[in-house]
Amino acid sequence: MIVVMSVNASAREISDVIARIREMGYDVHLSEGKERTIIGVIGRGQPLQQDLLALLPGVQQVMRVTHPYKIASREYHPDDTLIPLNGIQVGSEDLAIIAGPCSVEDRVQIIETAHAVREAGATALRGGAFKPRTSPYAFQGLGEEGLQYLAEAREETGLPIVTEIMDPQLVPMVCQYADVLQIGARNMQNYTLLHAVGESQHPVLLKRGMSSTVEELLMAAEYILSHGNTRVMLCERGIRTFETATRNTFDINAIPVLKEISHLPVIADPSHATGKWEYVEKVSMAAIAAGADGLIIEVHLDPENAQSDGRQSLKPERFAALVEKAKQLAPVVGRRVAAPVTA
Amino acid sequence: MIVVMSVNASAREISDVIARIREMGYDVHLSEGKERTIIGVIGRGQPLQQDLLALLPGVQQVMRVTHPYKIASREYHPDDTLIPLNGIQVGSEDLAIIAGPCSVEDRVQIIETAHAVREAGATALRGGAFKPRTSPYAFQGLGEEGLQYLAEAREETGLPIVTEIMDPQLVPMVCQYADVLQIGARNMQNYTLLHAVGESQHPVLLKRGMSSTVEELLMAAEYILSHGNTRVMLCERGIRTFETATRNTFDINAIPVLKEISHLPVIADPSHATGKWEYVEKVSMAAIAAGADGLIIEVHLDPENAQSDGRQSLKPERFAALVEKAKQLAPVVGRRVAAPVTA
Amino acid sequence: MIVVMSVNASAREISDVIARIREMGYDVHLSEGKERTIIGVIGRGQPLQQDLLALLPGVQQVMRVTHPYKIASREYHPDDTLIPLNGIQVGSEDLAIIAGPCSVEDRVQIIETAHAVREAGATALRGGAFKPRTSPYAFQGLGEEGLQYLAEAREETGLPIVTEIMDPQLVPMVCQYADVLQIGARNMQNYTLLHAVGESQHPVLLKRGMSSTVEELLMAAEYILSHGNTRVMLCERGIRTFETATRNTFDINAIPVLKEISHLPVIADPSHATGKWEYVEKVSMAAIAAGADGLIIEVHLDPENAQSDGRQSLKPERFAALVEKAKQLAPVVGRRVAAPVTA
Amino acid sequence: MIVVMSVNASAREISDVIARIREMGYDVHLSEGKERTIIGVIGRGQPLQQDLLALLPGVQQVMRVTHPYKIASREYHPDDTLIPLNGIQVGSEDLAIIAGPCSVEDRVQIIETAHAVREAGATALRGGAFKPRTSPYAFQGLGEEGLQYLAEAREETGLPIVTEIMDPQLVPMVCQYADVLQIGARNMQNYTLLHAVGESQHPVLLKRGMSSTVEELLMAAEYILSHGNTRVMLCERGIRTFETATRNTFDINAIPVLKEISHLPVIADPSHATGKWEYVEKVSMAAIAAGADGLIIEVHLDPENAQSDGRQSLKPERFAALVEKAKQLAPVVGRRVAAPVTA
After folding, report:
1. CB B286 to CB C282 under 8 A?
2. CA distance C247 to chain D (A)
3. Is the pLDDT score of C121 beyond 80?
4. Architecture of domain B83-333
């Protein structure tokens, strides 16, 4: 941290700031220019509260030199984190393709969808049993019954299950069914949930909050990682901006940024990022071209009758076409779409 | 809802849309123009999924005519909701002034602060025992011990307690100590928590999410209200924008908007909205001038040594000056700052 | 400027950065910590390109210590700038109240409106003759004819004229009619126009761009000020955010921020900031309470038939009520609404 | 347009709205539901002012059915617009690759760069002679001298010139040198400039404003098109959001959206969209994968000494690598990078 003193700061103010920094267990390095003094904070004590130093008399500005996340950073862990999923390593050359309906609606639907997406080349099956809905009057998911259907679908197809968890109390129960726990965008800073999921030691797909910065996403990951649960996949799913032509604005820049500053795999969610099925294939290709480690795509047998997110769901045949396109594109950027292990 | 058919929609497409709407339990009203057909959806069945109709062939656009919240709307409840708090009715002529530290740090701090803010004219005491912090390495609050100190402070000063709740499981415990449950901005769409708080029947201060629209804030309130818990205060605390001169952008427009479309009281939080104590008084006055029903202000005995949010906390004497100013301003806009009931 | 070297920077990289800074005519101050070296840039050469230093090997981050505007800053000019307008000094205790229609529509309209707003207590008359319209098919203003009507309205009422200028070539012509040149939000970074207006030495009302930061607004002002034209009023008129309940989000925080860091007067535009006449009075009061030096309000004799912005225009009687309210509020915040000088 | 009357609207209010619509030269279609009346506006008179109808008593909401741009829409012009540039047709299978420095700095620089980018496969040369700079103290470009150097570079390499125009008065002069006139993001709604450029009949590269919607971009294009100048290329260059990890947020969704609703070619600018050269190649590939018709890339011989935008400029060898990658990617999405015609 660097403390920039104002041009008019008195010697007394400068020595008070130094004393305060030392109290906090840090050392200082003084840089006395002609115009102003700049104080470097050296060492590693307890987390420094930048804001408090800013309150001291004579201080003009306090600037952070390091980023606030540790375990999530590439400096801490230079190699890519690899997370096994259905025979591939997410984060490696192999692209993960997670597909399925927004909501599990009934037993037949989810099993048929699982077969369809496996045929098309999916690595894992997504499906929501607990649904975060803006309206209390909208369909809220089938709950544990939905999880049971997902488990049946896995049994039939071999596809691992990715499903959202909203209630920290239900983590043990959901872990019995799910292979990957999904944290939704609205819960990215639900710290009670992050702690519970961190303790579970279950793989996690952590979605970026719709107005969260890349740094805040990594801080949320840090909550999970700090419990020793290292199997965290980050998910870019679009952010909220002033543009209304699409449901969200897909922050494609975030993919190379995250890959540079973190070692965690990055999955793209073009379904939520666009909100319209017409754009899903093109934005999926863009995500792969930008370096994403995988995709999560909403697929529905009959979008016009979906309980949720029908507007952005692909029919199985369109999903299959998307996977074909991904197979052609992947080698251009050093990736591949592996043939699924599951028989 | 209104379904606008495209200029080229065929008769068959139009009749299919009509059939679909009827299947959903609604009636239709047809408007056949020279250029295109427009279909009005009439009646009240189960919540209509606007998006699904948009998927039908020949449909250009589907437009919502009504808003999605009900109990929170002024049409449903034309009179202002009044919520008793320490002898005043929040939502009436009397302004509620909630003040206290960001975090409860120790017993002496919270009791002294309680005395100071009561002296200055506060209606209630705020203080966090469970803190949602961006970093897992930052101070997370004293937990139940903090609640016990808050209860002591109430005993000594008579000030009711407003405190944040993050874990749905802890609602019964927190209700034993708190007079008002605060839902923080990060948890505004934590539906598990909203349900638990709704069931508690305890008064709630619901903060707007940092990138939530006014409509989404009312939908979050609707979750609580739909459990029969009608004592919900809305809180505008600034939204996230591109501007970085202040911590957030205080959406002053939201105050008259919320007062017009909802009957629930609106509290302003200038501390979080600005992030700098220097601006808190001016923005507080602006909030009252715009029609807010009260303020929630961070006050700390020694901001330079605060465990959190010191940068935006007022010292007690500055808070007292703010209340004096509020007393002068209030009558101009038909309000008053009542003398506290507490002895 | 401060250059933070990365933890692994070599001695060679450090000395190269130092050499580069000296080449640019600056001196350096070295701070060698245990972990990393930090280089302070000292002195005042030509404007430093922060980005270029960031490209040098071994550099982790380059941080700016000073702000990029000079003449607009309060350090450069500690006292408030006062700008005479119809007998008051804008920036002093007296609030400036500028009112009138969005567009000049015809001779009778603007003269009648001028009388109405003068009666109600306006300081100056606004009215657009050149209109920046999103659509090329919308009414584009009366041009010079409109300016002539404005001049007639001034002759009859004594109210000075505030009118928008869009074309740099027309500055001399518009100056013949206008007392204050308005730069609209869309043109805040139209540098050709800023230069022309700067050279005119005419008073300027500079509107903040709809997605411009406070710093960028001051940089735009700097363009005008750097031509020796010091009579610049800044105008906060709402910024673009994700919220759609109002036309823009009024950044009330910007008022105390601008008053702190700059000496230029700040005018608030609640008409554009809300987009709906129902909210204009409340947000006007908020602006005054937050410390604005004046208001600019759209007033139309017959909003339902206005050529533009009818939705946000007040009828004269509502405007008169607003001014009455402002008269009551002003003394609470150390201001007053002066009786107009004009006979 | 559809006018939704409120539930309590009286018969008189309804008939008044109808009368008003007829006055404006439109016909109406009435849809009387059980709850409310909905009025469809039929026909094509002068542009309807939606806002004014919203002011009439009894009106709840006015909704637009059609988009406000005409000539820019795909309905008006179903086939892709093709714009010849150096032997290819922009908007066809052939990708346009425009490259060069942010600013023309001197004669040797621009000629050397032109050779380098032509070698690498560029279709056209970019370079700014008039620079819109946030600070009045920053390098403002070489002016006409810069244009002369660009013309020399074209003579030597055959590459057509793309250069920014800021001053409407200079359009005739700039047209003598430039092959394509660039309108920068800050000037997207500088209507005086749009008119002048429209009248020039010169090809235009129109950059999206940093907080402009896709619809506003098309409205700005409409200004140019309405002068009969049909050779307009749209350019997505990133929008302003809350994220600060990159200079802007590249709105990749905008590419398929624009290609669907408009017939104009879409060029992507990954240099401004990211602000850091490290991300330019990946985001360029994403843009092509999403369906862009071309790229505009900042290339500098010596970024560390660039007068502007060095941070985001590629060195020629990296640009050459990017073009190689584009050649591999293009066929996967039905495109190609043509060998330049120029000898």
Report:
1. no
2. 12
3. yes
4. Alpha-Beta Barrel (3.20)
